Structures are given as C-alpha cells and as structure tokens.
Amino acid sequence: MKIRLYEPADLEELHRINEDNVPAVGSETLADLETLLAGSYVTFIAEDQGRIGGFLLGMVEGADYGSQNYIWLSEKYPSFAYVDRIAVDAAFQGSGIGAMLYDALLTRVADSRPVLTCEVNTLPPNPGSLRFHKRLGFEEVGKQVFEPGKKAVVYLAKSLIQGS
C-alpha cells in the first residue's frame, strides 16, 4: 500500500468510495466533491497496485468552507488541521489504511499546526470510528446536535505540540 497525493483522475473513484461510506461521511454530488477536493489543504490517497483503497481530505484554518463542523472548530482553534473526511473502500477496511492516511497528514502538519481535529457522528452512532480515534490519541473537545434524535457529532482533537 502506498500513500500519494490526490490527482483529478481519482475523482470518480473517490466519489464512489465516499458515497459507499455514507452516513459515516457526508454525501456529496460529484461536482461538490470536486469543489471540496480542489479547496482542500491536502488530500491523500491510499493505493494498492493501482486500486484506490481510501482517501483522507484535510483542511486547515482560513479555508473558504461553510461546513458547520469546520466553522465550529475554526471558532475554537486559531490554527489547526482538520480531517474533513476519511473513507475506506469496503474491500480494504481493517487493513490499516486509516492509520496510514492519518500518519501522512500528521507528517504534513506536525511542524505547522498545534492540533489535529475531526468530528465523529454520535447520531447515527459510529463506535468504530470513536475507538479508532481514541487509539490514535484523540480526545473529546466538544459536541453538537444538528437534528435532535437524528444527527449529532463529537469533536475530537489531538495535540501536535511535543509534551502536551
């Protein structure tokens, strides 16, 4: 498995993987995903023998991005990196791709941002993602309910400052 940067030729496969991972990630039209990818700080692709196994879309502060989750994090942190979405093809789940994608982003931002952030759905529940992020050292920093009984998230952060 190798980790590489996104290329426009990857768009349709990333869209398929994204949609296969709803509701763990938000659904996007092909055009909206293309816009999101173009506006990202970095998007990493996990690839095995030419087959895309997953991707991670990362943002940083100052992006022109209207996501309520991104806005919440922007109000809390003046400088941060944000995992907008990570999605893994079903055939590759459990193979360590998620950790490899996070490692790539951590390497990219460790010297330039004090904190790495994300959100995980609590409604609908995503206990696997919460366990994954806990193993990576993330801690809860807030919660938000979008639709009572239907849509809620927990915000997670991992300090990138040595000794924190």
SSE blueprint:
Elements: E1 2-5, H1 11-20, H2 30-39, E2 42-48, E3 51-60, H3 68-76, E4 81-88, H4 97-109, E5 115-123, H5 127-135, E6 139-147, E7 151-159
Parallel strand pairs: 4-5
Antiparallel strand pairs: 1-2, 2-3, 3-4, 5-7, 6-7
Describe the structure.
By secondary structure, the chain is an alpha+beta fold. It has one domain: Gcn5-related N-acetyltransferase (GNAT) (Aminopeptidase, 3-Layer(aba) Sandwich). 31% of the residues lie in helices and 34% in strands. It contains 5 helices and 7 strands. Strands 1-2-3-4-5-7-6 form a 7-stranded mixed beta sheet, with helices on both faces. The longest helix is centred in the middle third of the chain and has 13 residues, at 97-109. The chain is globular. The model has no long low-confidence stretch (mean pLDDT 95).
